Amino acid sequence: MSDIADAALAYAGVKRIEWADRAMPVLRQIRERFAADRPLAGLKIAACMHVTTETAGLIRTLQAGGASVALAASNPLSTQDDTAAALAHEYGAAVYARAGTDRELYYRHIHQVLETGPDLVLDDGCDLINTLHTDRPDLLGTVKGGCEETTTGVIRLHQMVREGALWFPVVAVNDTATKRMFDNRYGTGQSTLDGIVRATNTLLAGRTVVIAGFGYCGRGLAERAAGLGARVVVTEIDPVKALDAALQGYRVLPMAGAAPHGDVFITATGNRDVIRPEHFAEMKDGAILANSGHFDVEIDVAGLAEAAVEVRRGVRPHADEYVLPDGRGIVLLAEGRLVNLVAAEGHPPAVMDMSFADQALTCAWLATAYPNLTPGVYEVPAAIDTEVARLKLASMAVDIDSLNAEQEDYLSSWQHGS
Q1: What does the entry list as the binding residues for NAD(+) (predicted)?
Q2: Per the annotation, does 125 bind a ligand?
């Protein structure tokens, strides 16, 4: 049973999924291993993730491991209807996802995947886990554990732990080194700018790009924007991250100070109302606003609409212009949602190869480790992180050194002098 837009799109979805699979060699190797070992045999998995060709690779890997999978969309505007159709009609997953659904149907789909009574849950933003705890606590007793893919979701999970609200162990896949390095930094850096350029056809060279937040995503955005010739300004609330940005040569300002200078503004903080009406009031005519944080709360879209005297919808695909009383126009991309997944295709498959490899191996680990875990937020086991990096290097034909016996002895003993 699924709820998708058009089953006739399945063939087109299969072709796109197969294309993405070519660039995901690590996940392919894990899928072959899972098919032989069946580490997830008999388990039911409920997932709330972006319904994209890359996610299809993960779903197929979990199925190869013996799991039955029900998938809901973690963002209505990122859903690829052909991918949803292919997963439902060619690959045997239960899929509840349609592009452009409203909030009511979005949560109905989340409830539908929970109706399967999952053993494991995979989340991207914590909406699935939140709904499970608030609306379906009757199902909590059967859930053995879960994984969370995003910074925003991990923040929410830690809040749940502090309040004693989390009922089962959840692994913060977002925080593993391979995911942060490859997905957050290189994936977000490239795909966000890809979305902005597709939506606006803007030349970034010589423009001032203001990046709110200098975590792993913000660093990647700054590097890629600077590489394209942009002048980069960073806004931060964390003194250590702000210092890091300054020492890397970026100008660091409060958002109030950056607002008059920016040509393009990108939010990547995980918090709400990062760009507000007082900032809109200072922006240039034609300033472009884009969000790369998980939820559509980082830019105060309601405040922008209230300040505008006219909204020109669709001035370009995924671009709306808000005209202020003095005639200045501010261009909002993707309705304030994830610009890389709405106006572009999200991270390239080669990036998600590592993130979803982390997810798949962590699910297999949870399937046996859960009896020894108490409710809380856990890191991905170091051995999984190392294995994913090793497999990725091998797929890239990159060799590295190894320690000899004397070196291992030196590093493991405190008795060696200088």
Answers
A1: 150-152, 184, 213-220, 236, 271, 292-294, 340, 347
A2: no
